[in-house]
Design brief:
Keywords: ATP-binding, Nucleotide-binding, Transport. This protein is α/β, with parallel strands linked by helices. It is built from nine helices and ten strands. Strand 1 and strand 2 form a beta hairpin. The longest helix has 18 residues. It is globular, with a radius of gyration of 19 Å. 33% of the residues are buried. Bound molecules: adenosine-5'-triphosphate (ATP).
């Protein structure tokens, strides 16, 4: 059986008396895009932050390639983290840096890349994201949607193995939202990266994900393919993805 690249093994996390994760079991496989869906405030960002170690579980563990993150030595953890890139809510661009400098930063941090290659890579990413010509602007001069796309360019500029996206398309207009989804999809085909994406874009996200995981009441209540979730008969899932009241649906179907 394939070992998941990232695995949550009965993970619990509370903040004071707010129990957010209550035994999360989740498997994320190499080369797939996994979409994490669920109601607002249910704990999707909290789950994502556990993957990169911004939060630690109270109980349970997270395995990376079959090995517990907390059992790894400092160097091994660092090597594992080097494979990650992430794009979180609130784009976290550096206001004192230009767009070019923001996007180039991860390449400079990696070290030993010739100047002209950095320039080419940054230009390529900005062009792909419809941002050519704004290299010298500062984040404060950009619209919210533009900032989001700059953040995406920065997350992808190193061609990372694993990318975590927290609502990458929220606030984008429909055309740019589709473009951002298409780009994630094209990247996956080109580089086979592993993506974990928190998203409210249902059903759009089903078209670019191989696996969907739904978080509800502190647990993963569904994990499987987009087709499987579309065909699920579980009322809580149907209600969420179709926005329909299961009682109304049952009443309607019994009339036929
Ligand atoms: N660092 C923290 N300290 C205290 N509480 C926190 C912290 N981070 C998250 N929470 C709480 O955890 C819960 C889940 O928050 P989270 O941001 O993960 O939800 P979400 O599902 O991503 O929501 P949304 O879809 O609206 O972005 C909320 O009640 C939030 O207040």
């Amino acid at each position: 059986m394939t070992v998941p690249l990232i695995q949550f093994d009965r993970v619990f996390k509370s903040f004071g008396d707010n129990a957010v994760l209550k035994g999360v079991d989740l498997s994320i496989y190499r080369g797939e895009v996994t979409a994490i869906i669920g109601k607002s405030g249910i704990g999707k960002s909290v789950l994502l932050k556990h993957i990169i170690g911004l939060l630690e579980p109270d109980r349970g563990q997270i395995l990376f390639d079959g090995q517990a993150l907390k059992a790894m030595g400092v160097a091994q953890r660092k090597a594992a983290r080097m494979k990650f890139s992430y794009m979180f809510q609130g784009t976290a661009l550096f206001d004192s840096m230009t767009v070019y400098e923001n996007v180039a930063l991860p390449l400079k941090e990696k070290g030993r890349m010739p100047f002209h290659e950095i320039t080419n890579r940054v230009r390529d990413k900005l062009t792909q994201l419809d941002l050519a010509g704004i290299e010298d602007k500062y984040p404060s001069q950009l619209s919210g949607g533009m900032k989001k796309r700059v953040a995406m360019a920065r997350a992808l500029v190193t061609d990372p193995e694993i990318v975590l996206f927290d609502e990458p398309t929220t606030g984008l207009d429909p055309v740019r939202k589709n473009a951002a989804h298409a780009m994630i999809s094209e990247y996956q085909k080109a580089f086979g990266f592993t993506g974990v994406m928190v998203s409210h874009e249902i059903p759009d996200v089903f078209y670019i994900s191989q696996r969907i995981a739904m978080l509800d009441q502190g647990r993963i209540v569904f994990q499987g393919s987009p087709d499987a979730i579309r065909n699920s008969t579980e009322p809580v899932i149907r209600q969420f993805i179709r926005g329909q009241d299961p009682e109304t649906m049952t009443a309607a179907s019994s009339q036929h």
